Amino acid sequence: MTDIDDFLQNTPEPDKSALLNLRKQILALVPDAVECISYAVPCFKVDGKGVAGFAPYKKHLSYFPFSGQTLKKLREFDSFSQTQGALHFSANQPLSNDQVRLLIDTRLSEIAEGYGRKK
């Protein structure tokens, strides 16, 4: 069992299945990502940088791009409830493969461009 499995162990359905599916989507896009817990949520890191994460909450599920800039760049998610660092969705309306790909590709581009690198 991994840290993420432990994290999700007591998550009720259908949220648990939605997050397990999101985990599969993320790993399909970044198969070499290291799974861990970061900032108290499941995180997927590439080259030591967080590229995706998620967590269940009482009234929604959240996707975390681990960047305060990612969601600002993506008008495709304007109709979603969100904060600066989290995109909210539900088990009944999970993120599509294309949406997850866009989020991860945007975050990987930020990392490649040096976003967040101390000067």
Brief write-up:
The protein has 119 residues and is α+β, with helices and mostly antiparallel strands. It has helices at 3-8, 15-29, 70-73, 97-112, and strands spanning 34-38, 41-46, 49-56, 61-64, 87-89. A five-stranded antiparallel beta sheet has the order 1-2-3-4-5.
How would you explain this protein's 3D organization?
The protein is an alpha+beta fold and 119 residues long. It has one domain (3-107): Aspartate Aminotransferase, domain 1 (Alpha-Beta Complex). The chain has helices at residues 3-8, 15-29, 70-73, 97-112; strands at 34-38, 41-46, 49-56, 61-64, 87-89. β2 and β3 form a beta hairpin.
Query: What percent of the residues sit in helical stretches (DSSP H or I)?
Result: 25-40%
Number of domains: 1
| Strand and helix order | HHEEEEHEH
Write the CATH fold name: Aspartate Aminotransferase, domain 1
Radius of gyration: 13 Å
Count of helices?
4
List the uncertain runs: none
- Work out the strand percent: 15-25%
Order of strands across the main sheet: 1-2-3-4-5
CATH-level-2 architecture: Alpha-Beta Complex
Compute the number of strand runs.
Answer: 5
Question: What structural class do helix, strand and pairing data support?
Answer: alpha+beta
CATH class: Alpha Beta
Main sheet overview = 5 strands, antiparallel
Given the C-alpha coordinates, what overall shape results? Answer: globular
